[in-house]
Design goal:
about 250 residues, Rossmann fold, five-stranded parallel β-sheet, two-stranded antiparallel sheet, globular, binds adenosine-5'-triphosphate
Length: about 250
């Protein structure tokens, strides 16, 4: 990895870029994952590379949905593994929920490498290497799912996901939590709760919220979920982008 000086004004963004590039070199991330990261970076730039108020509120709602879940599962792809492997393992431990590797461009070798990486970070019971079920409405490789994991989950966390799989999981009756910097994506619009935030900030924030809300009553958690409006959150994320651009115009 290229050494990035800590003093660089765009340090976090450049480190993330290096991590995804390393993911490709290590056979964890697909080359298409580089393009997905580029799209994410562009939206992060427009959002001011910070967790916005609507993203923080969505994170709180997502924590409440996950704490109320009967059987949550966290989906992991090549970009998630490159950017936030340790953080997603921490989240799965905080929730006592399994991780399931699911790849858009699936190869058994890549699935194993990601599962091994997660296990090396202390994850127990990583799923996805031996899928025994499928999600209706998706083509073969992407449809693969595991009983006891995504297949039976009532709540699925799907960071950096494409719209088809999000829609198919919602159609199965699951509550879906997306992490997606693009508030206009099909995934963002279809999900039950969308965290319009960078995964490197969103996952640690979500783990903290889960710990903070872990002693809240079911009624209090339900009240958080009932008050949440995903459509409105996406609109407010777009307003954040607009305000950021307006501030730039005023400075010019
Ligand atoms: P959709 O099918 O939902 O309309 P898409 O075809 O753009 O979306 P992909 O390219 O498969 O979807 O998904 C990647 C998504 O993840 C993009 O919307 C991108 O903005 C987002 N993304 C990429 N990198 C990050 C990141 N580091 N943190 C959060 N989101 C990210």
């Amino acid at each position: 990895m290229t050494e990035i000086p800590r003093s660089h004004p765009r340090y976090a963004s450049l480190v993330a870029r290096e991590r995804v590039a390393k993911g490709v070199k290590d056979g964890i991330t697909s080359t298409q994952g580089l393009i997905a990261q580029g799209r994410g970076e562009a939206f992060d730039y427009l959002l001011g590379e910070k967790t916005t108020t609507p993203a923080a509120e969505a994170t709180r709602a997502a924590a409440a949905v996950l704490l109320l879940a009967r059987q949550p599962t966290l989906s992991v792809n090549g970009n998630v593994a490159a950017l936030a492997a340790e953080e997603i393992v921490e989240l799965s431990k905080a929730l006592g929920a399994p991780l399931e590797v699911n790849l858009f461009h699936r190869s058994e070798e890549r699935v194993k490498k990601i599962a091994d990486l997660l296990r090396s970070m202390g994850a127990k019971g990583v799923l996805g290497e031996k899928p025994d079920a499928s999600v209706p409405g998706l083509d073969h490789a992407r449809a693969l799912a595991t009983r006891g994991g995504i297949c039976d989950a009532d709540v699925a966390l799907i960071p950096l996901e494409d719209g088809d799989r999000c829609e198919a999981l919602v159609a199965m009756g699951k509550k879906v939590i997306a992490i997606d910097l693009n508030p206009l994506s099909r995934t963002s619009k279809k999900a039950t709760v969308t965290l319009v935030d960078n995964i490197v900030r969103a996952v640690p924030n979500l783990t903290s919220e889960i710990k903070r809300l872990s002693s809240a009553s079911k009624d209090d958690l339900k009240a958080i979920v009932d008050a949440y409006d995903n459509r409105r959150t996406l609109e407010r994320s777009l307003e954040e982008i607009k305000a950021h651009l307006d501030a730039f115009s005023r400075q010019a």
